[in-house]
Amino acid sequence: MATMTTNSGVSLAFEEFGDPSAPPVIFIRGTGAAGNRWMPQVEAYKDRYRCVIFDSRGAGASSAPLPPYTVQLMADDTVDLMDHLGIESAHLSGSSLGGAIALRLAAQHPERAMTLQLHSSWLVTDGYAEYSLNLLKTLLLTGGVDFYYEATIPLLFSPHFLGTKFDQIAGILDGMKRAAAPLDGLLGQVEANLTHDGRDDAAAVRLPTLITVGELDLLLPVSESQRLHDAIAGSEFHVFPGGGHLVTMESAPEFNRLTLDWLDGKS
Fold it and tell me: 103, 119, 134, 198: least buried by Cβ within 10 Å?
């Protein structure tokens, strides 16, 4: 894994896969998640696209400056990474907090984004989203980093997946802990969630946009993605039947088929 330093002095760890001359896709992960959680997508995408994954500030092997963090800071980090890699414009794919970051980048720098994919994300932190995202902060401050990753598992996967794929979930949890964000970094990302307001960003976006969500997402339910869809003109919307919050991992084959078909149709 390589590293680069952003204009604000943050060290970002990143990896690239696929043909460097192919159309680039920047994958942006969610709260406390290392970029390697995108590997099920990278394996499917890399024969057709230049895939870039990275650990956002505060996560994985990237540096974790003291909070506060904001979606704006993390979108700026992503633009700096693109500049470092010589990527003028890319397809953007963000999950959860990564969706908020991708939305901000696309709204502020439309020339840097070819298409936009927002998965398991949300428009503005209010109502139930405010409750559920504040719950993440409570779990972290009450129990610490390891407890946070353990306690969020039921919020991230569907009941069926929890009940039938527990060995796989145990492996996922082990991977989460091995790439765990430090307390300051995880707290910074959690608080970035709590200040997110993408209403102006959504109104400004005029890119081909795909919005997806798992039917049984407990953290950011279907209604939150529906609000995004309603706010972004011309966006397309798909609900994965029976899926949880981490549909990218739980329903990877179906997720990859749908998103690749969509992306191929826009490229």
Answer: 134
